[in-house]
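Can't paste images in this forum, so I'm doing it all in text. The chain is below; anyone willing to post the predicted structure tokens underneath?
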Amino acid sequence: MSTACWHCGEGVGVSPFVARTPGGEKPTCCPGCAAAVEMIHRLGLEDYYAIRSNNGPLVASEETERTLALFDVPQLLAAHIQEQDGRRRLRLQVSGLTCAACCWLIEKVVMGLPGARSVQVNLASMQLTLEYDAAEPLFPRNAVRRILELGYRVALPGDPTWEGHQQKERRRLLGRLALAGLGAMQAMMYSAALYIGVFEGTDRIYQDLFRLAGLLVATPVVFYSGWPFFQGAWRSLKVRRPTMDLPVALALLLAWGGSLVVMASGGEHVYFDSAAMFVFFLLLSRWLELHQRQRIQRSWQQLQDTLPLVVRRLDEAGGGDWVATAQLCAGDTVRVSQGETVPVDGVIRAGEARFNEAALTGESLPRTRTIGDAVQAGCRILEGGVDIEAASAADSSLVARIGEQVARAQEERVTVVRDWQRVAPLFTATVLALAMATLVLHWHRGPAQAFEHMLALLVVTCPCALALAVPLTLSATLARGLKLGLLIASPSQFLSLPGIRGVLFDKTGTLTSGRFQRVEWRAAADVESEWLTTLPRIAAGLERDHPHPLARAFDDLSPVPIEDLRLSPAGASGRFQGHQWAMGGAPELSRGSETCLALTRDGRTQALFWLRDQPRAEAPAVLDQLGQRGWRLRMASGDAAEPVATLAEELGMSEARSRLTPHDKAAWLQKLEQQEGPQMMVGDGINDAPALLRATVSVAPAAASSLARRAAGVYLLNEGLQGLADLPRLADRCRVVIRQNLTWALGYNLVAIPLAMAGWIPPWAAALGMSASSLLVTLNANRITTWKASSC
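Text version of the structure:
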């Protein structure tokens, strides 16, 4: 018989390759496995071979070279790297993971590389997250090489080969489920005849035949369809952390093995049908959970996949070259024609077109956009063509932020899930102890009956319903939220919504449209006549690159070139024709809902501009719905007192404060939380970020700045505030479903355990009850995907 490779388990043939380790020479099948074994021991990670549950995978050298080649192209990596404060973050997809030991090994190996800051492997999502020093640009390639040398496969997000692997896994699980379903039905047909006593007297031979048929049908169900549970149980024992797979696997083995003993000894009851049903319903719950988890991933991945890989970037002469979308920077101008998809967030500088924004907002009707209008990556041009000035790099677009925040939501653990993960091992140990107590309690009635009652207890107390109650509901809610235009980046904040006592709104761009228009302008009395026609153009030059919505009121003017341009939250300043010019607010000159800006030259006022911003049409109805919940509605704005007071009165808000700095907003919010309780902050600007970070629940509208998006726990994908009215109602529904699932799961176990210990539940009924419990939780969680939004 051929010796198995020490690393991957393949046969080594007659001339094995030798890996030299401190424990002696180990046989391997190829130089790659030999190198992997020696490297693992050289790094002091030989514990991997003690805790792994499967052999290490093997990766072909040709595939290794192809994968490494991808990490030699900076343009490909740039689209997936996020950089902040001298650190870079990169998410990769990993295949070949079979247990926690694989994750442990990868994390230990990669953390030993120069520049590594953090390495996390998520076994459930098969994702690897790397954080490393920006001064180590070769770190990703070195990390991938180490992982490939260990025998695992690595791919960039969106790689089609990875999707093929995922489809293969889904088909395998579906195949196990189909076999379990067919086997369970067949086993129940044979068992039904045995339960009702069809075979008596001389028909005893047919009773044995039906039992044998049940054995033949149930065996592949238990050991093929149920293999993931045995694998999970063995894995948990290896790392000495019992999971819910342990009582499941034990129950399956006892049901199948005990039935064999009963058949051999001529006993009455066999449990092949119970075991088959048990596996089928457990796999059905697992498949539904997988389906829910992957649905939300596909929702944003499909949007991301629609973005073009290359785009035509225009130069100053009007010509253009085709470049990778990942190479675009803020300020670049790109030409997008009919039938093409917008590659980056930006502003239209030339042309007009009708856009299909359904992929991003769910709105099926096309919208016409023209010069000065903002457009977002992922929108498709149905008619026309435009030149777009990129507002940011491709990796800072809304589509990229959606991907980042979806990943953030999946990584975040809400309190009840964290509590369950801590309690789960104790729950499993308690179930095993109760099973032994049941065996001892009924032993005086005979071993066969005691075994039957113990088996019933193991089956009926499976904690699957408890484990699925919260994650499945949250997963379904995240998916439904995306369909409604609500990106829930923080499930913890989302679940805190029913406890909110008040809402603090920003004014400009949140309660108003943020599209200011010039109502009037006046030049100072002492302004020289030669400056009169130039003053609005100077204002446009100062405001051209300012991110505040007030600056957009000058986009239709032809700006003059400003030297030494400096931007600040208070305004903008720069030099033109030897003079120092500045643009800033003049709140004392505001008129009603009109905001006033002053243009100064060398410190003296040269012109005043009055701008007006209209309230959002849906704002009154949305605020009315929020007010009906008993929430106090307030406004915090950096604008002048008169426009703020006018809008607050128009919208019926209880309190409004003006001329607030970012620190003032955050301080007011903190004071409100101390006095009244949890508060929600809704804001879109850079100056709202401190308050968004401090709020119990933070919401950023669709047109929010990138900093506000990053700070918010919930992001409105659709234009307007309608999603804000739907948000608390969806949270209420989510909490109701979670409460229903937990109440049912806990109540079921509290009732079923005493009954099973008393011997009142046979194994077949236990399997049916447990399976029905898990299925009920899964189907109840799935109901939230059909929840209907309100209309204002």
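The two ends are 75 Å apart (CA to CA). DSSP finds 26 helices and 27 strands in the chain.
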